[in-house]
Amino acid sequence: MAALIEFLRAGPLTTLQGPTRAGLSHYGVSPCFAVDAISLMQVNQLLKREPLAPCVEMALGNIELRFAQTVQVALCGGHGQIYLDGVRVPMYRTFKVKAGQHLRIGPLTQGNYIYLGMAAHLHESTSFASPSCSVREELGANQGRPYKNGDVIQGNPLTDIPIQTIPFAQRLTYPWQLTLSLVPGYQFRQLPKGLKQVFFSQPFTVSAESGRMGVRLAGVNLPSSQLRLVSEGLGLGAVQIPDNGQPIVMLGEHQTLGGYPKIGSVIESDCARLAQARPGTKVRFRLLSRFAANHLN
């Protein structure tokens, strides 16, 4: 197996993410996948790969790679300046990198995560048939740890494909105000009316204490739910309301159990938008019926 890329500057949190580790939550194993699945799938669309084929997920940018083999690549997600041997190259479009060239991703100016895909068969370790890296559980690619300076990804380039571009209308935007669609859960009817009124009428702010597991929201303290629950399963987008009244929205590497009341779940496409929201972004919620949510998918 030959090296495909080497991380000269790996950044603060760079991992390989791909197919979910589904069906293992009852063992306490997180599904673990890209927090912005939309951008990951757009990368794979450009490269004519399976929708959830593994890509390199890079938090906040400021990364430099050296390519050991010639391969076609694409980048989607958070916005930053991308340079190939000092020459600016575009996001949301395929381009070829030749062996020996350096790709530099500057600090992200919008969003939190950027995704690099390569038209190659990657040779990475898997756990439970998925290469998605769970740092918390030490599972998946790179023995379940983030890439560091000097690490390599091995792989074999595939046949060249025509140049592809994602239209502007299909690219994520990164506003400082978000409205997230929430489908009510079974506990919705048990929550006090006053709590629900405040939840849907007041804005929250994305906290800096957020990450791949979930996004913490700060704002007006929600009234006590007065619900006492046994811990139960959590899914992507679940909105927990802990005792301090500050909601937490579950993301791609969420834990499998939680004992706080859940008002409902944010739809999957909005989870991607929330994952890319910078600290300080204002967030509001709107109620969406199950029927309407099914028609969105």
TrEMBL record:
Keywords on record: ATP-binding, Hydrolase, Nucleotide-binding
Domain of life: Bacteria
This protein's record includes keyword Transcription: no
KW Hydrolase (keyword) present: yes
Family matches, as InterPro entries: CT_A_B (IPR003778), Cyclophilin-like_dom_sf (IPR029000), PxpC (IPR052708)
Pfam families: CT_A_B (PF02626)
Protein name: Biotin-dependent carboxyltransferase family protein
Species name: Pseudobowmanella zhangzhouensis
